UniProtKB/TrEMBL annotation:
Keywords: ATP-binding, Cell membrane, Membrane, Nucleotide-binding, Translocase, Transport. This is ABC transporter ATP-binding protein. Belongs to the ABC transporter superfamily. Part of an ABC transporter complex. Responsible for energy coupling to the transport system. It comes from Candidatus Brocadia sinica JPN1. Residues 5-237 form the ABC transporter domain. The keyword Translocase applies. Its main location: membrane. InterPro entries: AAA+_ATPase (IPR003593), ABC_transporter-like_ATP-bd (IPR003439), ABC_transporter-like_CS (IPR017871), ABC_transpr_CbiO/EcfA_su (IPR015856), Co_trans_ATP-bd (IPR005876), ECF_ABC_transporter_ATP-bd (IPR050095), P-loop_NTPase (IPR027417). It comes from the Bacteria. PANTHER family: ENERGY-COUPLING FACTOR TRANSPORTER ATP-BINDING PROTEIN ECFA1 (PTHR43553:SF24), HEAVY METAL TRANSPORTER (PTHR43553).
Amino acid sequence: MARAIIVSNLNYCYPDGTMALKDVNFDVEEGETLVIIGANGTGKSTLFMNLMGILEGDGRIEIMGLTLDKKNMKEIRRKMGLVFQNPDDQLFCPTVMDDVSFGPLNLGWDNNQIIAASEEALVLVGMEGYGSRISHHLSFGEKKRAAIATVLSMNPKVLLLDEPTSGLDPRSSSKFINILYTLKSQGKTLLVVTHDIFLTQEIADRVLVFSEEKRPVAIGNYKEILNNYDLLLKNNLVHQHRHRHDEMVHEHEHRHGHIHKH
């Protein structure tokens, strides 16, 4: 299968010399959902900024067969979208429809295309009829869904999602997970940063673990990684209650595994 993302020997230092990414190597197949987990400060969000070309480290990044460089940046940003952790970073127009249509408008689409793509994106996130609403007045869960619609309106092949369920109550979280199921079924490539172990179990094909050394230390299918208690404990991803962790993993698999995992 073709690879949607290839990261080779990526390093990044902040201007003050602090190392943020060190020897990062991994790839993501087209249509795959790769979930990245790691403690705070391990470089996960910085990785996303590098993948989008917002930050520029040393190393090589390929997106959908194109090398990430200035020459290819515009084309890559047509193929890949980033959904920020804080939806207020993504919503800055007067109304929801203004926000959702902003991307297609800037891509130079004609008016009919823009309206159709924006309305389709709102339907996909369960927000049809919200177009005239003021983005600032939405609930946090609605803002999260509107933020992903602003990216989906451009029909990207690859989506980067930074902590998509953080701050959401269980019902809003379930709605968001259902959106991710739909995107998976459409063949989108998803790269998701999260602390949410249950979200990881629900959507991941593979899981990449980032360590405090600012680099990946393990990659494997979701069961292999999430059942490795010692790996998770070493990387500050679980509490020191192994019995309870195992119970929670098995309970979740029993309740959900046969429904969502294929």
